[in-house]
Specification:
This protein has helices at 2-26, 32-44, 49-65, 70-115, 118-157, 165-180, 183-197, 207-233, 236-244, 249-279, 291-302, 306-338. It is mainly α. Helix 5 packs antiparallel against helix 6, helix 6 (165-180) crosses helix 8 (207-233) and helix 9 (236-244) crosses helix 10. It is flat.
Length: 341
């Protein structure tokens, strides 16, 4: 089965390489090194035969050992099965790559021309890259404000006693409102609605400031719930010990509970900040000239979306390292929990 799948993928690979080469030639890109590179990738698919033949030979050996040593036969069968699954796994991955390659060159390279016009990408990269710094500025400032604002909302939701009931009610209503309100609507209402009020402070704010304000209000609701879950995960005995030493409610939160809670919520906080970074592209609806808005201007002038692809790549490049950092932090936390610490 694994050998047949490998043969099929190599056959499809040869067809894909020929199709891609013809597609590149149709758009004037007829470089021999590109053709050799394509067929080199297909040649690399021959490595799929290594685990496939290993699995086949292991299965044959297991058949011969059945009547001699049943334990050894089972071990060989397990190893052969593992090799076969490895071959099938890599075969599926190779097939996905080939399908994507065929998609790019379909209809006389229509997809490739629309999204991956490298000449246009290089020509307009300085415009999109410069505008991308606006996105960076927005999410860096918004992240700092969200950290502070979210903690204040979380503390308000945990206000103790009957005296804190009104505060808890208002904080809960705020969280429910902005968690249920799409970010793009919040940005639209803040960016276009508040300037119409002509209030002394608001009328002097720029679209960038309104964008930061809207994102802070929206993500403050999400982050406050992350803070609250972290605070409530700290064992009640910590609070009881602090109060028995004469600490007030706020002192207990500040010196005992919150430091422990923050340590536990760093991975989900980073996940929220990754979402915040991506949502900075929504500020284009209020006229802020960010990377997405600049890319749309380029796209409308050239009738091509390659500049938008540039924006997508920039967002992915800054997001992937943070996503891997989140994975590492979660893995470290899981190891600490398994070790009992």
């Amino acid at each position: 089965m694994a050998i047949l799948a490998a043969v099929l993928v190599i056959g499809v690979g040869l067809f894909t390489a020929a199709t891609v080469s013809d597609g590149l030639a149709s758009v004037g890109f007829d470089e021999s090194w590109a053709t050799y590179g394509l067929y080199g990738v297909v040649a690399a698919f021959l490595l799929l035969f290594v685990p496939a033949f290993k699995g086949y030979s292991g299965a044959s050996k297991a058949d011969r050992l059945v009547g001699i040593d049943i334990a050894e036969a089972r071990a060989e069968t397990a190893a052969a099965r593992e090799s076969a699954w490895v071959a099938l796994g890599y075969t599926v991955a190779a097939a996905i790559v080939l399908i994507f390659g065929l998609f790019l060159v379909a209809n006389e390279v229509a997809v490739g021309k629309t999204f991956f016009n490298f000449e246009l990408i290089f020509e307009t990269f300085h415009l999109v890259g410069a505008a991308f710094w606006m996105n960076v500025e927005i999410f860096v400032i918004a992240e700092i404000l969200v950290l502070v604002w979210g903690l204040l909302i979380a503390v308000a939701r945990l206000a103790p006693g009957k005296a804190g009931a009104p505060v808890r009610l208002i904080a809960t209503a705020y969280v429910d409102l902005f968690r249920g309100l799409p970010a793009i609507i919040a940005i639209y209402l803040v960016g276009f609605g508040l300037p119409l009020t002509d209030l002394p402070v608001l009328r002097d704010m720029t679209p960038t400031m309104f964008a930061i304000l809207a994102l802070t209000l929206t993500y403050g609701a999400y982050v406050s719930e992350v803070y609250r879950s972290g605070i409530e995960s700290v064992h009640w005995s910590q609070t009881a010990a602090a109060r028995s030493l004469g600490f007030s409610h706020l002192q207990t939160l500040r010196f005992v509970v919150v430091p422990q809670a923050v340590r536990r919520i760093i991975p989900p906080l980073l996940n929220d900040f990754i979402s915040l970074q991506k949502d900075t592209a929504l500020v284009s609806v209020i006229g802020t000239v960010d990377a997405f808005n600049q890319a749309k201007i380029v796209a409308s002038n050239h009738f091509n979306l390659s500049s938008v692809t540039t924006v997508a790549v920039l967002f992915v490049l800054i997001t992937i390292p943070q996503a891997r950092l989140v994975d590492k932090l979660i893995e470290r936390d899981q190891k600490r929990m398994r070790a009992g610490g």
